[in-house]
Amino acid sequence: MIKLGEKIKLLRKQKNISQEVFANYLGVSFQAVSKWENGNTMPDVTMIPAIASFFGVSTDELFDFNLFEMEKQVDAICDEAYKYRNSDMKKSEQILREGLQRFPGNDIILNNLLYTLDYRIRAEEVISLCKTLIESTKDDSVKYDACRILASCYKENGQSDLIKPTLERIPEIYFTKLELLATLLDGEDCYEAAQKQKNLSAESLIDMLIVAGKYLQTIGESEKANSQFRIAKKIMDAFEDDFLETKWFSSTFFESAGEQRSELNELVNN
User: Fold this and answer.
1) What is d(CA 90, CA 125) in angstroms, rounded to the nearest whole number?
2) Tens digits of per-residue pLDDT, 45-73?
3) Most buried among 35, 77, 144, 245, using CB within 10 Å?
């Protein structure tokens, strides 16, 4: 397998540009580029998508990976990290960081990494990573998810004027891949998709009921607002009877939704 520095040098020469031109595009010194090409240092992982984009290749091509084998390994890394996303965020992040050491700049791992970063504490890192993925990834699902996360980060940090333009880049979609897998496949593939979509749908539905209720409160519709909160709490309470599928999760939706439960209890009791 060709080394990354050698690959960058090869692509740069094929493009017939100097180290200085390439360095200016990335916002680094030409000495940094020289060190990469000589194998003395590696580019920061967040720069990999930009490097691949500049040369018009995928990150897979940049690292000269066997695509099929790489995808299987990347999926395994992300699946393992997903188990701890709600119950142990630091462990989930660690698994993904270790994955990036094996597959630097991989769009899928970087996309999953965004889910482990606190928007309030690490907003700069989140915004930078989202913008990089939006501009460089060739995977639309990664691009649109990065748009969604970027908009959420703007909301969390009071940059409301940037939310709508960011969300306008996402097309309206009325189904998910998991829903299709659950309804069109059979056996365990169907079951796995249904379990994962079930948790996502529950979280989303409860969130929407809370949002609707809070809006109704602001316009003085107290009874309608309380009806939304009560429905949300009933849905949440119903999930207390759910069981854990340890193959895909480290906790049930009910166990991992502590913040939602606390907020709902407060809203219902007020």
Assistant:
1) 16
2) 888 888 988 888 887 777 765 566 778 89
3) 77
